[in-house]
User: Fold these one by one.
Assistant:
Number 1:
Amino acid sequence: MERKRNAEIELVCAVASDQNCSSTRFFVPHEWSGSGSVRGEKLEEDDDKFAVQRVPSITLDSLFADSQMKEASLLFRIDVEGQEASVLEGMKGLLDLSSPFVGIVEFKTDSVDGQGTAAADYIGLLRSRFELYPFGKQGLIQDLDASNWLSNRSITDLILVSVSYTHLRAH
């Protein structure tokens, strides 16, 4: 059986961000490439633990025409080593057009704090745009309003759900 290429899939070699830029520093650790990051505030270009690559950055909004996404459903996953807020900002238009959408975003308190935003403030920002559901123990979804949730977490995944989706479910 011959496998056909899907014309709807396009590979884009760039860093997802809140802005389009022709050259962005991307730090790749020699030890483990899976933890590469554009966050260089604690890194130096001449640090021998990292290779520095120059790559373009793009917004996810720039990849889709408004007509493609108008009232389309959207499912996404973001795990970008502390740049989640930038990626979400760069897909604001996409999220506004898509209805409904559900996404999973990695949340690390130290990464958020390292970007100069208190973890509680970041959660507040997310709550202003999405319904939020964190994964709890054994992968169970738990209530975000649990009194000690934030103080007991250093890393977890958050499920982001469009407010329009939660309204659709209620009817």
Number 2:
Amino acid sequence: MIEAIVLAGGRGTRLRPLTDTISKPMIEVAGKPCLDYVVSNLQKYGIDFVLVSNEFCETLTAGLLKKYQKDLTDPFIVSNGDTITNVNIKKMFKRLNNVDAVIFSKDNFLHNGGTFIFRKKVLDLVGPKEKLEVPELLERLESFALYDSPESYYFDIGTPEKLEKARQALK
């Protein structure tokens, strides 16, 4: 069973020409690919069955998640392949008590931390090919919780400035 899906299919247009020859999650940050940080953090918290999807998607799409619905655990994790974080997955799971999803959030933004935990039933709320951004999905949920902690960080490497910030912080 798949415990986590890492979305690694963005085009990385804001990082061109760097992404003309390498996908954004494979960009090196402090000596290793961004994707390595993402998968390592999941494994640190006992998540061993990770699917890395390199299918192109501008946003989190329900169709992409529904494609793997029968193989997903309940609940399951979604992580952005271009966001480095040290978020404590076990503590996120503790927030899942009576809600449909938990979103790693900094400064009260719904999806900027790049890590989400969903109950499998949320996939029943969307059509199989429907493109759906995270805030739109959250609007359909009965409930969700935000998770943040002072010791958690994240670095989205989606622009040259953000990439450089991550490289400086993690060297």
Number 3:
Amino acid sequence: MAIKQQIGKYYFSKEVHKKRPNKTFVPFMAAKSVGILYDAGDETMKKTAHKLVSIFQNHKKDVQSLGFINAKKFPEGLHVTYGYEYFNRSHLNWLGLPVHAHLHSFINKEFDYLICLDGDKSMFSFMAAQSAAKCKIAPSSTPYKAAYDLMLDAQNRDFIEQLLHYLQKIG
């Protein structure tokens, strides 16, 4: 394993094991805010994020999505609109950890649900581990399970369908 990865794992482990306030699960109907982290370079994930934003907005939830663009600069013509924001590699340090004030603002927001569509990327899991969200959700395929409160196995089922099913059942 490369030294950079070992250092990153150390910081992730340190963050995950910090004492956090007791977690509370907010029932779906009572939830007011949702945060969504995703890889904006993956078309399927981007469509899933946009569909989730639309669904939650239709349920009168305040939704903020944050998509990662794997480049030093934003592409020409990228439009940031309400509910759809982006960050790129210039917002991360050399370990791939968030350093920009915009990312820290997202991390510190007390979402009722934080949904990470790409748990395989360590930066998303690190952000989830630091997040003030009440419930953190990701696919069960993530290697960083300690950062999340609810894991969904969506290999054979649609992630959105499964997410809504469990959010409505639990609450």
Number 4:
Amino acid sequence: MLACNSNVSVDTSEIDSLTTVEQQANFLIELARLDQKVRLEEDSVLDAFGPESREYEAAWRNISDTDRANNRKIEYYLQKHGYPSVRQHGVQACDAPFLIAHHSSDYDQKVRLYPFLHSAWKSGDLPGGQFTFFLNRMYRERFGRSIEWSRPFFEQEEIDTLIYELDLGER
């Protein structure tokens, strides 16, 4: 069992028992589905009750609790099984760690997850656009603004600059 903030705990035995690629892929796809489900529910609650309602506040608590649990799960999953590969797990499963990680409200956790995402990007299992999205979100969280460019730039240059500015180096 992995303890988490706000009384959210994660049963790691489920992740420990994922012995096949198919089980791992299904787990990751389900995690991504849950991530999106609470966000779609929040949209519906906002439309039905408005942003000042108790229902909307409850929907945001549900998103926060789901994000905390999912981020604990994905961090443990990546430590245990590594980043999934497109070739073995499929694109949907490979998108899940990115999707979950970029919703983390814990900057330090994003730093811990960075090496997995960086490695996946280098191996081609995480598209550059998703990796730059993750890094740009980290940059905004750390500096309170987006990075500014005075000229057009290539994706590789953006990634290298963000890694340098965030002091992530080769972890």
